[in-house]
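mind reviewing this stuff:

——
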Amino acid sequence: MNQLKWLSYITCLIMFLALLGGAVVTKTGSGLECGNEWPLCHGKLIPAYTLGSLIEYTHRLFSGLAGLMSLVSMLAFWRYARKRRDLMVYALLTLLFVVVQGGMGALAVIKSQSAAVMALHMGFSLIAFASSLMLALGSKRRHALGDNPPPPGPRVSKGFRNLTWAAALYSYIVVYIGAYVSHTDSQGGCSGWPLCNGEWIPELSGGVGIVFTHRVAAALLFLLIACLGHLAFWKHKALPELRALGSAAVVLCLLQVFSGAAVVHTLYNERLYIFAALAHILLIAGLFGVLCYMSVRVWQLERANK
């Protein structure tokens, strides 16, 4: 398991870099710097040394490497950890969604896609990264346990399990709305934060309506995560793993709120905006990954105590 653990760590890191590269491509508008060609860039294997083509091609390379690593991980876990069904599922999901998001990315280059479809592409990339993160966390846990069965623990209620699942699903919806904001170029719909154009409830039309919907959805997500973290930390003191995951979710969500505010206040400062926008994307990716793994763990803990 030690070698598999490190393989899962490397796969997760490559997936993170691929996700980061995709965010840089989107925020710098470099998606078509290689023209409508894929996998070549302007008919060449090595593109011209322009910043835009370098960004796009680097992202393609990391996406390809992510696909290769996810395939290697799948084969390795199938060969040496086939009985660990949870790890097999994580590896399979990583491979599946890397292929899906890679195909959608290639299609977006060859033929222009709607903002709704491009937002879905971001969503699939997020699931691929979350799956690789679950694989890394799950491998770490299995390595710590060794060949020993997990010790019996206190019961996790069905209500808490459902709350965790609802938080993970809802976070994905919030991510999709945020990606839709980006792909419709609606970022400037609301000036100022927390008010939108100086109002608590602005006129909900065009880009203003899209951005305001995202803000409301994000605020509700924070309340949901705060409730989840509170219950995980104070009601499950005998489960340190669950307390750590709940605390991590709250911290990541809080940082996500601040990064969203930073995006608004740096919108017209190109250099600062890029960093704020990337932080915003990467924080929600980490939050979604933690919530997905937490969803699996509460399900396992509930089943183990039946």
